[in-house]
Protein 1
Amino acid sequence: MPIQPLSSDKLYRGSALNGLDEECKSTKNLTPLDEIVGQERAQKAVEFAMSIKEKGYNIYAIGRNGLGKRTMVLRYLNRHEPNGDTAPLYDWCYVANFDDTRSPKVLKLPPRTGNEFKKDIEKLMTRLVKAIPLAFDNEMYFSRAETLKNQLVQKQENALLTLTNKAKSQSVSLSMTPQGEYQLVALNGEEPHTELTFAELPEKEQRGFQKAIDALEIELRGIVRKLTEWEETYSDKVQKLNEEVALEVIAHVIASLKEKYKHLPEVKHYIAAMQADILDNLDIFLEESEEQVALAYAALEKKMPRRYQVNVLVNQDEHKFPVVVEESPNYHSIFGYVENATYKGTVFTDFSLIRPGSLHRANGGVLMMDAVKVLERPYVWDGLKRALRAKKLNLSSLEREVTLSGAISLDPEAIPLDVKIILFGDYETYRLLQHYDPEFSELFRVTADFEDEMVRNDESEAQYARFISSIVNDNNMLHCDRKAIGRIIEYSSRQADDQNKLSLHSADIANLLRETNYVAKAANATMIRANHVEQALQNQEMRLSRLKDHVMQSFVNGTTLMSTQGEKVGQVNALSVISTSDYQFGAPNRITATTAYGEGNVFDIERSADLGGNIHSKGVMILSAYLASVFGKTAKIPLTTHITFEQSYGGVDGDSASMAELCAIVSAFSQQPLRQDIAITGSMNQFGEAQPIGGVNEKIEGFYDVCVIQGRATGQGVIIPESNVHNLMLRKDIVEAVEKGEFNIWPISHVTQALELFTGKKADEHDGENGYSSHSLFGLAQAKLNALRR
């Protein structure tokens, strides 16, 4: 039986939307999906990871860009109840550590309390900055301070007066020099002795004066020590007085704050420490010297001492589960950093200049990042692993870690970390991390594997229609009528390269809908219809097809040699796909085979010229093995064959031309011509069986376009593997041509069927014990080979 071409109904599967009610006329009648269609497996993985609290159950979401990975995860997390089984949320603040200013302390507060506490402290400081100076500027304080001063002066004067009288009784005067030093001098009557008058005194009298002065000096030194002690006692009393006065003000103002936060031990302890520190640093409030306290008030926000500010790092909403998407995951944006400030030429930093990172904001929730971006930035991956292992967030200076300088920096207290990390990436990045980083599998134990496609049936088409409705509603587009929905589903099936599958590349569908919506609005339509979808697809094709038009032009002007009619020995039309980053199209290639007397080798010119890839070389080896099994079972094939892709200069890979190459070689062996109005695609195994290939739709369309360029003729067509029939979603013009009998698509299961179509002869017909029939293609080839052997 001759091979029958496919009927037109096998070339395209339309969408009747049998899964939708007859009353459903458009997406307006459909309930939008609240999830990404066809990703149940990935969603289960995310749900599983989110429900486990143990360390290491972070998620790596695998899949190509555009599958809706981020959208699906965000939609799931938005439904995630924060008050259910999730970790409790907290506000995190940094405050001064009054014992060690280099190590700021962390305060953990209930959600929405951080900013409130900050404002309370600001109000407190505003009151104290005014109230404390006033408390020291009244008669009562002056009176008490004056009394202490008078007591000190009185004691000092009494001690010195006693010594002065005693000295005078021994004719010695006690006086103070202009430099402020005490001086004992012998008296000559009422006047001090000069050096001359003292020298004129008898030696005994001089020794008496010297002895008296020495004794008085010893006594004077004792009194001076006492004066110093009394000064210190006085300072202590003044300090105590100041503290008592200040405490009266502070205790009154701070009492309500202590009462408000008494249920939070950390805050209560901080308020007590702050109160003690204020009493130790009253000069900041009294502003005795503006220059001394200028830096203390160098606040960037409020007129208050910097050391008492509250730096609210994270202010959480107790009713909202924190989900943070980090678009630019560098070290500072993830882990936070410490700023430097300049005031009057002085560079300084403190806890109030600590800034949060994504991990701080996502603490208690989820942080989502692109895996490749994380790995591209230096030190980020190591820092992330360190934080997840320790379950702590250390805000260490990156500069200090990567340089040898000992610059002074802060060492803030670590914040406990409870976060789920979701990395989005592709399979290659996933495999590299698994292979080269042993910690990766420990920290990212859950893989959310996103599907590229889903099974196409009535139920899935109905679900896909709801998915289309969700895109329409989310973007406030015009609604799609029933035929437009069907056309988009057909487009999705074409994207999946399978009549029985639907593409889950949601970005493609969303982009098509946006462009279709634009076309419909430009036409002043009230609803998206099938013709608008067609127009949008044509617009896409026009924008992306510059390279295709350039290639096809070479067939128009004859630059690329191609015959689509007649017959030729050792020459066959093969099909290939040319791809760019966002577009692919088919174009036929001429394959030729020539033979010469030799050892039976098949030389692949592409491989010899380093233009053939490994897979192409494997295909040539497989067809060589098949040739040997057919023609070389009893004796070596006495021909050397050379095969090549004509006018191919950019490299060839893939094995989808191996059947075409075999047909060209058999034609060269048998000297039987091959039809040039037929093109072929398909790979083969060592037994000659046809194997499926990719890009079958583009390949058929490419040859059809060349046939149109060079002139249509009855009988033109394409041979494809039978296993590729389900992949057919061809253009409308080709389906119509097949329907009219003007173009053919033959499915084959074995390479001999292709040879029969090309030559019109039976390929491997046997003639009893004599092997192949003399009328068969293999028989003719065998006869020529036997003649050469003889």
Protein 2
Amino acid sequence: MQNFQGVGVSPGRITGSVRQMPKPVGEPPSGEKLAEGISPEDAVVRLKAAAQAVHDELKARADTASGDGKAVLEATALMAKDTMLLKSAGKLINAGTSAERAIWEAGASVSEMLHNLGGYMAERATDVLDVRARIVAELRGVPAPGIPSSETPFILVAEDLAPADTATLNPAVVLALVTSGGGPQSHTAIIARSLGLPAVVAAHGVDGIADGSEVYVDGAAGFVSVEPTDEQRALATAWAETSATLAAFDGNGTTADGHLVPLLANVGGAKDAVAAAGLGAQGVGLFRTEFCFLERDTEPSVDEQAAAYKAVFDAFPGKKVVLRTLDAGADKPLPFLTDATEPNPALGVRGYRTDFTTPGVLERQLEAIARAASESEADVWVMAPMISTAAEAGRFASLCAAAGIQTPGVMVEVPSAALTAATVLREVGFASLGTNDLTQYAMAADRQLGPLADLNTPWQPAVLRLVQLTVEGAAQEGSGREGAAKPVGVCGEAAADPALAVVLTGLGVTTLSMTARSLAAVGTVLKTVTLEQAQELARLALSAPSATEARDWVRAKLPVLEELGL
């Protein structure tokens, strides 16, 4: 029996057969010529047959898909038969280039041309590169890149998943995710939590598990075992039964003694908001507004933005909706706003800082938010990401006031904002802790890197101390209303961990925002502890010498987690 230990990022216990994500298709050697005895005519015929096979496979998958995944597959299938692409490759073949190298070079040329055209055509540039890789794979007789197609459910094992890999990820077929790379705050981890899939990341060696092997995955413990034991099969069966009891949240986040901790949802648009409302979310703690801007070459108009924002507000009439203003930069570059040549984008012009180099975009966004808020019944709060100083917080508050927005706030992601929370919060009405980036910056550890996964966890005592300092700063800088502290929420992925949610509550965090699928688990566990017990667990975590011990010590005091497989 082989066992692998990684980092658990999404709870669940399950058994199933492994399907390995095919390795990326390697570039054919530069200058590769037709093999001896292969005529250009035969090579062109072979290329067209491979392109047709790729088209047919993608079209078949599109016929069974829906929504965005269906659109992506259909567009990619059409590109597989693109006349310009195949003619360009044919010319190279006639000049003696191998079919594999010809389609690779033709794909690069067509992709560059489409990208330069901008707009919709630029969006197709990525499809061309995907298609050329698939055609090369077909010519070589190796698996195509991307998530494997299967009629039976399986556990997906990969080095890591790029955001684009998830376009066709069907949670009815993919039972769990296991990666050898990535970290607890990586895209794979966030995707798994949003889909409710058990997941383990940074499990070194899992890419060596043979296709078809049966494995047991424990997404809470970060454990993967080949050839499950009878005990592990029983645990998986029990999880399937238990998860049904966690299928609903009653819309009332509270501790056992009645201390209110509203549980909010993280959303990216109207579809997410409607789904979150249906799952009982008490509002929105993080509306990622950059989804209105991504995959565009130009800034969306105020009218476009206002319509998108109002659609989210309308899902939560009378409830709090917290928007994060545009968080472009780092892993979310925008051609009209960010500089792709920055040597260190994570420490560069991103979030609020883009207003330094491209003034006007933020003010137009605030205008759109104010307009949408005036036409809805939601209680709209607005916060800026990547605030580092009190001066920045004050300027953002002024911009909000000029736009007619009454409740400005800040994201606490930069350690300086946590360390000076009292002065920062003197300028605004609330703070929300983005624990993903706060952890990354506090530990100087890129959240996407598997080798740094042990550092990049919000269980780090140093990160918990920054949370505590932010709460203490909010208490020191009261709102003026009967001396009450200013609200401090958490909207990072830390809030989706039921054990960590208890610790955050004990530290004095006032609201928790998470992927909507985590609401029931967090709500269930919170109801098993009093506020005093949560405070004691927070002190325990803060006193731990390491993140591992902080997590283990707290979990040992919460037997309900083991009972529920969380």
Protein 3
Amino acid sequence: MKAIRRFTVRPVLPEPLRPLSDLARNLRWSWHTGTRDLFRSVDPERWAAAGCDPVRLLGGVTTERLAELAGDRDFLDRLDTVAGDLDAYMTGDRWYQAQTDRLPAAVAYFSPEFGITAALPQYSGGLGILAGDHLKAASDLGVPLIGVGLLYRHGYFRQSLSRDGWQQEHYPVLDPHELPLDQLEQPDGTPAQVTLALPGDRSLRARIWLAQVGRVPLLLLDSDVEGNGPGERGVTDRLYGGGSEHRLLQEMLLGIGGVRAVRAYCGLTGHAAPEVFHTNEGHAGFLGLERIAELHAEGLDFDAALEAVRAGTVFTTHTPVPAGIDRFDRELVARHFGPHAELPGVEVDRILRLGTESYPGGEPNLFNMAVMGLRLAQRANGVSLLHGHVSREMFAGLWPGFDPEEVPITSVTNGVHAPTWVAPEVFRLGARQIGARRTEEALSVGDSDRWDSVADIADQDIWELRRSLRELLVLEVRERLRASWRQRGAGTAELGWIDGVLDPDVLTVGFARRVPSYKRLTLMLRDRDRLTDLLLHPERPVQIVVAGKAHPADDGGKRLIQELVRFADDPRVRHRIVFLPDYGMAMAQKLYPGCDIWLNNPLRPLEACGTSGMKAALNGCLNLSVLDGWWDEWFQPDFGWAVPTADGAGTDPDRRDAIEAAALYDLLEQRITPCFYDRGRDGLPDRWIEMVRRTLGLLGPKVLAGRMVREYVERLYAPAAHAHRAMDPDSARSLAGWKARVRAAWHGVTVDHVETSVTEATAELGTTLGLRVRVGLGGLKPEDVEVQAVSGRVDGEDRIADATTVPLKPVGSPDPEGRWVYEGPLVLDRTGPFGYTVRILPGHRLLASRAELGLVAVPSEDVVESAGLLMR
């Protein structure tokens, strides 16, 4: 029989056990070993059955067991210790509080998904896991972050396989009352809500759930509330589901509703108001519009409000391809804003212009969320050094006249939260070496020299650790594979072979991620005979564990999974290669430590960062990857192997795959398997162990989320906070007026004549030339502009590389025609072909970049010819 109503019945804990409730409601347990060990000891079997979720555990523990624990002195002492540790963690000073710079009072961090723990399934892949790790690292460092996202009633889908290997999706309903969440409430006990206006006099309401991620509050908006119509209730039904209008409403709720939720939370709790707003990808870009509307209501016009909002906004782009960006029909966006919908005080045309693709090749009828995000943020970044370069190329059209390297998009390479991803066995080895507290600090802060102690760990200890982790993975794989085959319809009698799947003494390769085509799940199948030989080699076999989800609407990705599954089903190789469905955080935490090699073979440069290999490296797993994302930046032969790429313009995709697959097989056959299996005098693979040691000791500190968040604080949050404080209403009005004046006058800004003190085509290194330039400023003043000499090596087409810029100074007064003369030195500091040019840029003390306005004046062709080119 089916129940007609459902309740969540929470246990009543005996008074001595009340701290267990606080420990369960703070998600720090998801990365704090001592807290997890405490909950495991409550009831080990129920802990495993509850998926290591304290809230579910406490909901199922018998009253008899609770009474027993309430009288257990040893348990209560441990409980007091763990609760005291949490209190000290929440209230004590940490890295952020020790900084001398005037840092932001608070930072609001917006993301469409957050991967905190498998017990709160609100993530689909790398973007969400990165956001979760960002919050955890901020908590460990004491950064006053407020996270903002949506609460999806179905989360992302659960994955299983049909008998023939086709991906099946399932959407279990999540009850917020059974999750580690609390409702944000008004003083009278009623739920706090935010409301958005929709066309047709409708409203979209959402309540605010609070997940406490260590010191960081995470606000999650939920539209499944009374008062909403069926369509509005379904806005937060599932992650990345629905059509364009559904996605638009999700992103309006995240951005606009998210700002309102932050205001409500700060008002109710006394938390400091954010000085900086960080938009993690374009999905939350509408937050800037809400903040403009707030300032508009306080008396600022749109342009001044835009400058004030930009000053305190950071935008992070995660996609290296235009197809990965959300774009909406302009008419759809226009319908949801204006007098009869949301933000009625803001002109719809001004909103639309923020998202317009107003550059060559852009589509004027589409509203681009990343373009809006860049226009609403004074500071922007990609997520690896290579991705920063790709992003500057991709968005260069927004800054016409500037070389891509001058486009104001920097990069902060992603990191991963080591306490979440490091296996307990690895942690214990570190604790044995330097102590638990020092190990914890080394993993969280990321700037400690304590990683050097890895050099002192005995070879035997490292090898035994790696084997034990591999053995744990083998057991995990067999259990998950058996469950998967039962879901596919197999009977117990058919599954005896699973007891022989994988071998704890065989080189183990891991590959797990989302399954878009560019990640090339099936590249390893390119030459099946060669792969089979690798798997079944009599002396140096390889075994492979694969996992991943295709988007529900991506049949191409599903076909790739089916192709891999069918190969792995072959009785000849199924003991050496497996596909595990339903990849998620719980599986990942077992998979990364147990693999010896982490494989990544995307089409370069389409992997923005790719952090799975970082998590593997923190457990002593070596990387085998195309030089893309973070691996392009930090690869060394001591950390693993680089797969050569065939990414020349003349190589067709099929031939490229063939070349790179062959290179992959060559590496496995000729370099990797010999390194793993060849033994020294002591019976150990000496070179392999040394690579593990150097991966841990040298690469480990680089890949930490603690390092990443410290970079965000120092390079982006602190400057944004200073800019925010400087942008008071008068300054915002002044800057907006200045920009309008400069834009209106810029057509009259010209470089009219350039001459140098040397006219020969050669000169000696170190020579200093005198530059004299006559310019027209079109009614602007010298304080409105910067006239620069730009010099450096030139290529065969006279393009300047590695440019050096030197400001020139005005001399005297303008001539009768209003033209100014600028002078300055030009140092010939490089040998070989060398060239220079002159340009004029807008200049103002409140600009974060000279390229900010996208305006530049350069010499005309006539002026170029008269100036000549030096040292060709």
Protein 4
Amino acid sequence: MPNSAINSGHVDLILQATEIGHELKNIIHFPRNTGIDNDGTMPRETYQGIIKQLKARRNVDFSLYKENTILRRIERRMTSLKIHHSADYLAYLQDNKEEINYLFNDMLIGVTSFFRDPRAFDNLQRELANYIQNKSNKSLRFWCVACSTGEEPYTLAIILSEILGDKIDEYKIQIFATDIDQNSINFARLGVYPETALNFIPRTIKNKYFLLNSEQYELIKPIKSKVIFSVHDVNNDPPFLRLDLITCRNLMIYFTVELQRQILPMFHYALNPKGLLMLGQSESIGVFQEQYRPLSKTGKIYETLFVGKQLPPERKTSRGISLTTNNMKELKPILTSQHNRNKVDAELTNIIADTLREFVLPNAILLNENQDIIFTQGDNALLVRPTGLPSNNIFKNLHPQLSIDLRSAFHNIQNGQKVADTGYQSFKLNDENVWVKLILMTIEREGPLGRLTLIFSQIELPENIPLLTTDKQETSNQAIALEQQRLLAKTKEQLQNVIEELETSNEEMQSMNEELQSSNEELQSSNEELETTNEELQSTNEELQTAYAELRMAYEEREHQRIELDRLKVDLEHSNTLQHEAERSAQMGSWFWDLTTRKLEWSNGCYELFGLDKEVFHPSYEAFIGLASGEYRSRLEEQLTNLLHNRATQPFIFEALDVDRNISIMSLEAVVSFNDLKQATRVMGTIRDITHSVMKEKEQVVYKDTITYLLNNTLTASFVLDIDKLQIEYINAAFQKLLGYSEVVINALADEKLFTLFNTKDAIVFKGIVDKVSRSTVGECVPGKYAIKPKDSNVFMNVYANHTVYELNDTTGLPQKMLVTLFAAD
């Protein structure tokens, strides 16, 4: 191990074991006075000198990397070399070329692994599968930026293999993996990794895509062949084009905001429409919200949005060095002497600009590099709001008659022309014929806005156009001829623009052809490796056939299990539907309480009983208690406690509040399960809304009490008859006085005995009246006249009688008892 470390060339000191402790103590107490100022930065001249040395020797510009990160790496190298001052270290760099390599390698923080952040790659696999399914062709191009030792691009190849399966050979796949470190690229090309690099990979992935080779794991050839490695500086070199996916994870955290705002537009230009961009967990798209749409916030996966024409982003130069103190001292007298004059000039300039903006060119539109509207001024009638998804692209929001001429003017602007216009065009605007011209100007800006385009709208009435103000026919013909000449010239100009765009596309195709040629060389070298491994593939073919047969059997078994699961799922859904309908018709719901996890679950019926939204309300013990009203809360809590101790009486009736604060009467019943220690483990129960039945029962009691009171206090003879039993259940005092029967005697006359009170003819009349009342409604009165035999008399007494419903059957809802009032007819 020590010899291997020494041979790697990355060891700073080679010491005996007895000397290591003393040297560590020296490093800990090494003075940190490295020439850093009190504000936490290195002197600017020294810092720029070190950056220039790295640029000159390794052709990598670190000027737009975060300075704190660069300073820490420089300080680390100074500590290793025991150099106290940064100026001395700059001199040491200039005299020792090897130290540039050590510093450069120290700048590179190659932290990577297979499936780093598995949840993010799960999201990527899902979004990538959707993208491939909607893709019109079978060509896939990925770019893995800052790939380090290659774990991430190989992870992309494995994910692709999992998505495409047996169809992977139908696709043309290219995964470009780039980094600025040649050593990392050389290591990644081998595709051989120690066992520790595969610790967090699922066993199924390891067995499927890796081969054990001399105590190390090597990726299988089909995966290695999908990845093309090359040295590439994303800050300086041109990007790969027509890409479907770019992964740039945990690289931009080392960049300044300025460099980040150069890289993201470059990625946007390199990606296909609706292409995918994957960033690290600590990175985001920042201000480029209109260029990217988030697909997965947790996975940091974005989809590119394209509006208008796609233009290559401009690269900004590195930040310059600020003026020195001596320069400022030389400029100060000049600035002081001209201060008052400049102030007056600025005020007069503002007066002129405000007047022009108000009276001459009141309508202005400001565009960014993507031709999106970022600011408008004035009430511009030429702007329209399109239907569908909102867009700020100028061509989506401008009057369609001006689109072609505007594109031509944009082409002139892009070719270096500072000011361009569309020429006057005549069309109808707001039911009025007008002549319209757009004037375009470019504005160069540093920082996040970049290059801007300013558009002024000039709208003129026909009478304000000099050539159209006369009524002469000859002048009108001349105007038509001039307009035709202008349109012809405009058409020629637009045709020339199309030709130039085609030439530009041809140049891009030529650069892509060179890229393909360089890839062809790598493919030729890979072809030789494929020829050498052909014999090994032939020898393992029989093993693969056997494994395929086993996999086929496993697949069929899995398919059978899937079908069975689908059937069980359908049955379960049917059962749930039946349960829901049953609960709804019975106005009840079921609930389950797991005392181990304190989790309370409700059926859909419980949510409907209380009028609660399943997506908003989450049942819990406390929330359940809170549904009871007033004093019933403590009683409900006591009931649940008694249930757990097996001393509760059931059912438990309580009042509850629904979502509208209405009071309902609920009946709760439950069954408790106990373990071997007689401890409650779970509770299953039902809740039923008995408000209607309780209220109906109360109404019946009140009704009966009222009728009883009336019967006992009236002078009219009355009795209550059970229609089904044909038995008189009740007589009042007036009935006893009129006919002489006691309640005991009259109750004994049940069924056919009841008709002994009537003669044969009147018995038939009374039966007809009973039948008619049994089919009547509450409140309907059936009058009648018949004769009744008094007690201890053979002379029948003629009476008039009224017959009404006294009580309904709870089950059938039909009349069950009848009230009869009698009046003597003689």
